[in-house]
Amino acid sequence: MQTKRIVFVGVGGQGNLLASRLLGEACLAAGIPTTVSEIHGMAQRGGIVESALVMGATSPIVSKGEADILIGFEPSETLRALNKCNKNTVVITNTHPLPPFTVTVGQGVYPDIDQALDLIRDKVSSLITLDGDELAAKAGNPLSLNMVMLGALIGSRIIPLDEDVVRETISHTTKQAFLESNLKAFDLGVAAARTG
Questions:
Q1: Is the pLDDT of residue 79 over 90?
Q2: What DSSP state is assigned to residue 143?
Q3: Which of 38, 51, 162, 173 has the fewest C-beta atoms under 10 angstroms from its C-beta?
């Protein structure tokens, strides 16, 4: 299998680490050798969180310019992680901003989202955008952004993993109280990537 290097970026509380872990479990269930690593940074709610998943290789390290896919849970964090990308990278990003504390108290300025997306688009092969927070709310659970973004990755068809395998993994690992909304959020993410 061709190696695929996937980087997930976001902020604490968005479920980035769970999404990468579920993807890793789904890959293993499908017989795809996979390694997952986590770089927590400031993983408390609001701090930067990064994780990586490498399909078809044993090293979980994704160096600068090596990401085949970048999944951004927050647009400014997607922009910040652009150094992991190259001209062949596919970027999937949530467009809903989650401004840091410094911006909310007036000590910083949040980047213009349209300009940030243009900058990203100019540096990579393809950019898929969606309002993941809106889709998570539509699924009935605002905390299911991670399932939306995982669905968008699978829906983009850029990795060789069937959505049924991922749905089954979600079903086996999600608490019953959140299962229905997580599966709905996943499906909304799949649909958004295929229509957007």
A1: yes
A2: G
A3: 162
Q: Is 156 helix (H, G, I), strand (E, B) or coil?
A: coil
The 10s digit of each residue's pLDDT in 149-166 is 999 999 999 999 999 999
* Alpha-carbon gap, residue 98 to 10, rounded angstroms: 10
The residue with tokens 């996943």 is 186
Question: Which of 55, 78, 48 is closest to 154 using CA atoms?
Answer: 55
Q: 64: domain CATH number?
A: 3.40.920.10
Q: Distance between CA atoms of 36 and 23, rounded to whole angstroms?
A: 9
Indicate if the alpha-carbon torsion angle 131, 152, 168, 4 is positive or negative: negative
pLDDT at position 47 over 80: no
Per the structure, the count of domains in the chain is 1
Q: Average pLDDT for residues 25-43, to the nearest whole number?
A: 83
Tokens of 93: 């990003």
